[in-house]
Design a protein that fits this description.
This protein is α/β, with parallel strands linked by helices and 377 residues long. It is built from twelve helices and 18 strands. It is elongated, with a radius of gyration of 23 Å. The protein binds NADP nicotinamide-adenine-dinucleotide phosphate. The site of NADP nicotinamide-adenine-dinucleotide phosphate has 30 residues, from strand 6, strand 7, strand 8, helix 8 and strand 13.
Length: 377
């Protein structure tokens, strides 16, 4: 007979495996969440699964298929409450009931208003024992974008900036390639690949001829992960308040893009990329409204790769959830451009950030920092 303390250890062990499986969907599941599932019977894993992409079977279905008849009387560990609604696929709660599992352990409830506890309720009504909250903190970290979109109607915004040791991001002329080395640039490629949207501004595109695509040979992933990442490239969004970027710019030639602007779309753009007119202030795009529109389109994670003006505007508006700052061991000098255009007069006005990680990336350093209080609170 297993004691409750022993059961808690076993539950955490199997949930950790389910989380590991969920991470395989790092580059592909959006707009859906990353989810993993493990089916355990008599102390043996009899089925495993993870969700790969929207429209395809959920993690539970893969795991139950692998388990077959062995799912009867088993425990299913799933990193997110099983769904109870008919989306593009049938409800997973029903699949678990039909498979005859005895117990379902979820890491967390699904905040999607279409589920929100109803998946677990459906299981309980069918006589299945349920539990929720096992390794919930880890499960939340898997899906910052999906959770923020469900809970706040906004995507998770990650701002990436590369700077010198003296905090500069481009020369006075606008030249900024390259501040950091190949390892840091490869890490940025992976940040792009995991995002639903990579967003930049007109001046970055004009100054750098930036395309902001994901480049397979720079991802630094194995062949399987590279194929997954390349199968679901992020949408590239250009914030161009006055439509200054010409249609023959490399950015537009590199594939589909969305332009957010606050002026009426000119005729020359009529056969060009999709344009989203976002009501502006002082001739500038309303960035919060743009994020709301992106969330409504199912965008979970936005990577902002812009210069000091646009990145500074996101920061000043309290729209940033996380900064990824890559620091190179060089000085760009006092005439070079700052990290953020954000004039502050007094120390008491200085925004505080919590540095959650610092790690070496090749010859550079990568700092992860979250605004305090966090944007999503
Ligand atoms: N080190 C790095 O990590 C890094 C990364 C990217 C870029 N850069 C460098 O940064 C420089 C460009 O930086 P930047 O910030 O001036 O250009 P940016 O990133 O292109 O951002 C400014 C652009 O955003 C548009 N915009 C629209 N709504 C806005 C709003 N609400 N607030 C702010 N901007 C808004 C502006 O529109 P309007 O035209 O209507 O004003 C302008 O076109 C380049 O030199 C580039 O090389 C460095």
């Amino acid at each position: 007979m297993t004691t409750p303390a022993e059961q808690a250890i076993l539950d955490a062990h199997y949930m950790a495996r389910a989380l590991e499986l969920a991470r395989k969907g790092h580059y592909t599941t959006h707009p859906n969440p990353r989810v993993g599932c493990v089916v355990v019977r008599d102390g043996q894993i009899v089925g495993e699964g993870w969700h790969e992409r929207a429209g395809e079977p959920h993690a539970e279905v893969h795991a139950l298929r692998a388990a077959g008849e062995r799912a009867r009387g088993a425990t299913a560990y799933v990193t997110l409450e099983p769904c109870s609604h008919h989306g593009r696929t049938p409800p997973c709660a029903d699949a678990l009931v039909n498979a005859g599992v005895a117990r379902v352990v979820a890491a967390m409830q699904d905040p999607n208003p279409e589920v929100a506890g109803r998946g677990l309720l459906r299981l309980e009504q069918a006589g299945i024992a349920t539990e929720s909250g096992v390794l919930e903190g880890e499960a939340r970290k898997l899906n910052p974008g999906f959770l923020k979109r469900m809970e706040h109607g906004l995507p998770f915004v990650r701002v990436k900036l590369a700077m010198s040791l003296d905090g500069r991001t481009a020369m006075e002329s606008g030249e900024s390639q390259w501040i950091t080395g190949p390892a840091a640039r490869s890490a940025v490629q992976r940040l792009r690949a995991q995002a639903s949207v990579v967003l930049t501004g007109a001046d970055t595109v004009l100054a750098d001829n930036a395309r902001l695509t994901v480049r397979a040979d720079e991802l630094g992933l194995d062949a399987g992960q590279t194929a997954l990442a390349m199968s679901r490239p992020p949408l590239r969004v250009l914030v161009d308040g006055r439509l200054r970027v010409p249609l023959d710019a490399p950015f537009f030639k590199a594939g589909p893009a969305l332009v957010a602007t606050c002026v009426a779309v000119e005729e020359q753009y009529a056969n060009g990329p999709e344009c989203l007119i976002v009501p502006g202030y002082d001739g500038q795009v309303d960035l919060r409204q743009l994020l709301v529109e992106l969330a409504q389109r199912g965008v979970n994670e936005v990577l902002v790769e812009a210069g000091p003006r646009l990145a500074g505007a996101f920061a000043q508006l309290g729209l940033v959830d996380e900064f990824q700052i890559f620091i190179a061991g060089k000085f760009l000098g006092s005439s070079a451009r700052p990290l953020l255009d954000w004039p502050l007069a007094q120390m008491k006005d200085a925004p505080e950030l919590k540095i959650t990680e610092i790690r070496a990336v090749g010859d550079d350093w990568r700092v992860t920092a979250i605004p305090s209080p966090a944007a999503s609170v």
